[in-house]
Amino acid sequence: MDNSPTALFESYDEDFKALLASLKGKLEGDVKQLKGEQRKAALKKVSEELDEAEEIIAQMEVELPSMPVSIRQTFQQRLTTSRSALERVKKSLRDIRAETSRAELLGSGASPADDPYSDEPSGYSTRTRLLAGSEQLQDGSRRLDNAQRIALETEDLGAGILRDLRGQREQIEHTRDTLTQADSSIDRASGTLKKMIFKMYQQKFISGAIIAVLVILICIVLYSKIIG
User: Positions of the region Disordered (predicted)?
Assistant: First the structure.
């Protein structure tokens, strides 16, 4: 199995596209046909799948720094396109949730004769509830957007930490290679020094032998002169 960053990115991208197609199908078809608790359950399932899609996007982002620089920009553009598609699906989910909440408010508080925008007391009460519900939805959307922003910042921070760790690992490996080369150089220098020491002792021995021979010859010559 190819575990290169490019191959992993392609694998994540395929999973993301399949999941995105499933999400679109549910939001545009299945969810809209359901009512009440069934719709809520379907929306919860869609939300869980959106979290899964977010995780896939995060994994794709982690693989980017490990790619060759020559192709990294192309995959960055693909990641941006995928994230934009995911944001559109999120917006569709928020719209459906808002629609569901409005329907529940109308169904629980208004009679058939009530007009939500009427100036009559009953209509005014319904309109008040609608406005309150709308404000709650907007507040929830703001919290969701803030949570998403924090998640993106956390992902960026995590990607930065991974890049730093990868750089430190490369520095450690480079240092280890340098130490290995230095150790080899020391071994070669030690061998050369041993050879030099051996030759030095060899030369001393030869020099000593020559001196000894010369002394003997001088003694022989002197002895010969004395005898003669």
Answer: 103-124
Range of the domain at 63: 5-181
Is 200 inside a domain boundary?
Answer: no
pLDDT tens, position by position, 156-190: 777 878 887 788 888 878 878 887 887 778 888 77
Q: pTM value?
A: 0.44
Residue 207 lies in a domain: no
Give 61-114 pLDDT, tens digit per residue.
999 999 999 999 999 999 999 999 999 989 988 888 888 778 777 765 444 444
Q: Contact 30/92 with Cβ under 8 angstroms? A: no
Overall number of domains in the chain: 1
Beta strands in 68-149, from DSSP E residues, in sequence order: none
More confident residue, 52 or 25: 52
Helix, strand, coil in percent for the chain, rounding step 5? 90, 0, 10
Count of Cβ atoms closer than 10 Å to residue 38 Cβ: 12
Residue 42 included in any domain = yes
Q: Which long-range contacts (CB under 8 A, 24 or more apart) does 40-46 make?
A: 40/100, 43/93, 43/96, 43/97, 43/100, 46/93
Would 225 be classed as within a structural domain?
no
